[in-house]
Amino acid sequence: MTDTILIFDTTLRDGEQSPGCSMNLEEKLKVAAQLEAMGVDIIEAGFAIASEGDFEAVSEVAKQADKAVIASLARAAIGDIDRAWEAVKHARRPRIHTFIATSPLHMRVKLNKTPEEVIEAIERTVGHARNLCEDVEWSGEDATRSDPDFLARAIETAIKCGARTINLPDTVGYATPETYGAMFKDMIGRVPNADKAVFSTHCHNDLGLAVANTLAAVMGGARQVESTINGIGERAGNASVEEIAMAIKVRGDVMPFRTNVVSTEIMKSSRLVQAVTGFQVQPNKAIVGANAFAHESGIHQDGMLKDSSTYEIMTPESVGVSTSNLVMGKHSGRAAFRSKLEALGYELGDNAFQDAFVRFKALADAKKAVFDEDIVALVDDEVLRGHDAIQVKDVEIHCGTGPARAILTLEIDGVEKTAATRGNGPVDALFNAIRTIVPHEASMMDRYEVHAVTGGTDAQAEVSVVLSENGRTTRGTGAHHDTMVASVRAYTNALNKMLVKRGKRAPDAMAG
Ligand SMILES: CC(=O)SCCNC(=O)CCNC(=O)[C@H](O)C(C)(C)COP(=O)(O)OP(=O)(O)OC[C@H]1O[C@@H](n2cnc3c(N)ncnc32)[C@H](O)[C@@H]1OP(=O)(O)O
Ligand SMILES: CC(C)C(=O)C(=O)O
């Protein structure tokens, strides 16, 4: 029988560790629901001890989850493990994921512990976790820079104390496929009780090898892979789930495994994560990049017209890329819009559908051709900010060779407020107006990015803004055919997220 490789998705935990990548509760619940629809087996919903917000997110994802196992990360500390359990215990299938570093460098410098003390910590904490929860995962952080004899001892101890999954992370992306695959073979071969646990991979992409290393580990005996949508994560990111799932699916001839991933849901997951994090994937990104199924040169186009398998090793449809050819414009009605949304993988409730339709009509009035990318940007923008405390009502701007003047109206918890301000250019004037209406100390980091959703001078703009306050960063995004409106939507989106991060609902709490 073909072995199933379990997919452990850590978009909501390690993915969220990308600077500026934070998600609010509503966004995390949407991503978690989509991950389940995509068939991931385990969702790491956060690090419950890290903050009240993380705790709430893990608890709510746990309550919402239907089939997936829900995990929270915890250090090798009783307080962390108790907090993780309090959050995941609501799930039908809870898991506590506890970790401690096993490399000489991390043990000495970071933990200030001897190897013996680390073994004692594993005994104490894995045992404690197992008393609370049947399903315990243990990770040996920085496994790839650990002494193999010590690592084997640590793994044996964790399994003896009740861990069912043993994760051997390449925490700093140092491994190569040969060394990482060999490490799994070695550990599974030498640890006496290895057959009592599922071995797991967790790879970072510092050398661009995360997916290759993951697949090498699978060949070496791993049966769980930890990864994130679009490969987001700490530093250069994690192994990307869509690449792993499709590599296993397409190259079953050399990797005789299967996953439970519903591949046609991949694109929808990728787009959702791009929308909530504001991290656009590069156009040439495998599987989900805008050019992944584009053919520009004549010889390729000729081959494609004769038989698409000449230049495509998988079909766009197999990863959920829409090939619907309904042309959308100002004469399109609700039926066509609904059908287009379905083809793009969206299922909106009645209110969200109506709001999106109104915005689609406004866009179609302003823009000659409305492309699929326009609709994706518009829907993601509309749907994801429905419950924001600060909403954009009206934007007016006068600019030219002198200072720019802005008149901005925001609605804050149902009350409209207007400010008229000047600035060094239109964006500066508008952002000054936001700061006048909602005084706050969060500063804008040097990332103000504008991206044209399609070609043409009437293209929609997608703007992303990063705010920073006391070491916390939030990224906001906004889409509109007017770049200034998109900019205000992006800034207020980041501000709304900052409010949630601070755990304070009232916008005037932003001040100082
Ligand atoms: C490889 C990874 O991705 S690990 C996960 C990384 N994710 C995060 O860090 C999530 C966000 N983190 C946080 O919110 C905070 O760091 C917290 C809440 C976890 C801890 O905050 P603080 O108590 O202020 O500690 P701080 O962050 O300054 O330092 C971490 C402490 O944890 C200790 N620690 C680190 N890993 C472990 C571990 N696995 N087990 C036990 N202790 C650990 C460190 O040695 C340090 O202890 P020290 O203060 O005695 O030197
Ligand atoms: C805590 C572990 C799983 C981790 O994220 C890493 O080592 O990168």
Separation of termini?
A: 61 Å
Going by helix content, strand content and strand pairing, the class is: alpha/beta
Total number of beta strands: 16
CATH topology of the largest domain: TIM Barrel
Number of domains: 4
Ligands bound here?
acetyl coenzyme *A, 3-methyl-2-oxobutanoic acid
What general outline do the C-alpha atoms trace? globular
The CATH homologous superfamily of the largest domain corresponds to Aldolase class I
The proportion of residues forming helix, as a percent range, comes to 25-40%
Report the top-level CATH class of the largest domain: Alpha Beta
Helix count, per DSSP?
16
> Taking all residues together, what is the mean pLDDT?
91
Second rung of CATH, namely the architecture of the largest domain: Alpha-Beta Barrel
Query: If you compute it from the alpha carbons, what radius of gyration comes out, rounded to the nearest whole angstrom?
Result: 24 Å
Strand content: 15-25%
Extract low-pLDDT stretches: 504-512
Major pleated sheet: 8 strands, parallel, barrel
Q: Give the spatial strand order of the biggest sheet.
A: 2-3-4-5-6-7-8-9
